[in-house]
Structures are given as C-alpha cells and as structure tokens.
Specification:
Blueprint (H helix, E strand, L loop, with lengths): L7 E6 L3 H13 L4 E7 L2 H11 L3 E5 L8 H10 L5 E5 L4 H10 L3 E4 L5 H77 L5 H26 L2 H5 L2 H13 L5 E5 L10 H22 L3 E9 L2 E8 L14 H11 L3 E6 L5 E8 L2
Parallel strand pairs: 1-2, 1-3, 3-4, 4-5, 6-7
Antiparallel strand pairs: 7-8, 8-10, 9-10
Length: 358
Amino acid sequence: MSEDIPKLKILIIEDNQEDLLIFNEFLRLSKLPIENIFHSFTLKEALGIIIKNRPDLIIMDLNLPDSNGIPTFNRINNEAPAIPIVVLSGLNDLDTALETIAKGAQDYLLKGEFDEKLLLKTIQYSIERKKNLLKENKKRNLYLENKLKMQKIITNTIIQTQERERKEIGLELHDNINQILASASMCVQMARNGDKNDKMLLENTSNFITKAIEEIRKLTKSLNPSSLRDIGLEVALQELISNMTLNKQLTIHLHHFNKEIENICWTKKLTFYRIAQEQLNNILKHSMATSAEIIFSLEGNIINLLIQDNGIGYDPNKKRSGNGFYNINSRVEAHKGEMQIISSPGKGVILKIAIPHN
C-alpha cells in the first residue's frame, strides 16, 4: 500500500534520542516513500521547520523541553491546520493523546507498542483522514458561503419589496384616494359658498366619500387579508381570485383544496396567501396567460402548492428582471421549504412549493 502515497516530507518532533533512533528505524523498515525527514527537539524549532518547509505529515511527542501536553499540540495544530498530525505517547499520557484526537489530531501511537506495519498503516490512514476532512470542510464552507450570499440576496429583496410596496401605497393614496377626497372637499367648499345646487353637491360629496372608503378598504385588504384569519385560507384565496380577475381576460381556478390545510398555523397560511398573490401578480403582468390554476395538496408532513398558467413562459437559463421569484423564495426558505420553477418559451410557467406542516 505504500506505493499509493507520494513521497513525503515528514517532521518528527521528539526530544528523546533513543526514541528518535527507534522511530527512524521503523520508518526505514516500513518502506514508506520519503522525500525528506526533518527532526526537531523543541517546539520553537518545530514551528520554524513548519513555516519554512511545510511538511506533509507531523509526528510529535507532546512533552518537550519548552512545552508540555495539550498546549504543545495546540501550537502545532494552529500553525499547521491542514497538515495531518500523529501524536506519540507513553501509557501514562494516553488520556492526553486521546484528548488531542478530539482537538484535531488524526491518530496516536503508543511508544513501545507499535512496529513498522502499524506505523505504515497509521500514517496512511492519517493522511487519508485529513484529506477527507479538508474536503468536507471545503464543501461545508462553500455551502455556508452560498447560504450567506442567498441570505444577502433575500434580505436585499425584502428591503426592495418593502420600498416598492411603500411606493405603491403612496401612489395609490396620492393618485386615487387623495383625488377622490379632493373632489369631495371641493363639493363641500362650493356648498359653503352658497351654491344653489346644494342637494346635488351633498349627493356628490357622499358618493366621493363612499368611493374613498371603498378604495381604502381595498388597499387595506391587499395589505392585511383579514378574511384569511376570520374565514380561512380557501375563502381568502377565492376573494383574491375574484379581485384579480375583475375586468381582466384571465380565468383562475382553485382546485383540490384540502380542508386539513386550514389547520396549519396562521403564519404559514399567510405565507401561502402571499405566495399566491405574488405569483398571480406575476402572471397578470408578464405571462399574457388566459388561464391559471392553483392546486393545494397535503402529503404526510408536506403541504404542496402548485400554480401554473398557459402564458408565454420563459427560458429559466436566462436572467430575468424583477424580484417576483426572489420574494417567493424568501418566504419559502423562511419556513425551510423548497421552490421549483418549470418553464420554457411558449409553454407557460409551473411554480411548485413544498413547505413542512410542522
């Protein structure tokens, strides 16, 4: 098996000359491919060799003239976190050797209790273990890095969405409700000035105020769907569909709504409502669809939501402008769920959401 290992640079940290001679002999008998062997008798010397030569393997005694026990291992491991370390120990120091394994050493050897075969196997396994550990760490760091990037994207998306919603509310108040109230105010002012058509002015004022109240009710409902808490998710979705299809060339159907879904917590109901609201808005704005479907299903602990349309679709490989799917994904990830988008040009869009019940 020794031919599987490339030629190694090995650092041996040992202050006992007799132990060092025995160890070197076992290394020779093991037939291990070796490029160079470095010896150090103190921690200070060892740190200098590591910095200058970067060995492939470190075999070390813990008790040296200038350092003892776990602190010796910690100094070496901190200086060479990517290099496999095998600890040399006597029977009296076995507990300490085992502690170094918990702190990152790959293995240990008991002095006087090993031969060249065990030495070879220990070195091979230690190198392989360290290699696998570094791979896992790299994979984990990459995962955490990607997760952090996604969290930043989601945070930015939420901020942008909030700003967009504030802007939309401001425009709605200014361009619609404010104008209606201004008209009502004008009628009141005319009546105060003694206009002869008092009855008509009062009627117009009443109509304007009624219209303003209705517009405020619609705006409030879009921000806080109270019916969702009072009536339930299914009825709230039906109301949403009715409002969205009013005077628009789009039919939306809610299919197979599982009544057990009404038993989920309020926050998840609101999440599903907002996802449906967001995606239906996407369909109205971008898809040119004439038909859309919303399908809920419950499979074990998973609630599935599928929203599909017969619109123009898009190429998922091409970057899209807008935050629609980012907004949806941020809501899904908040509940440890999964989102899948299936689309191609001319074939509409299928949005699949899966969120755990508990």
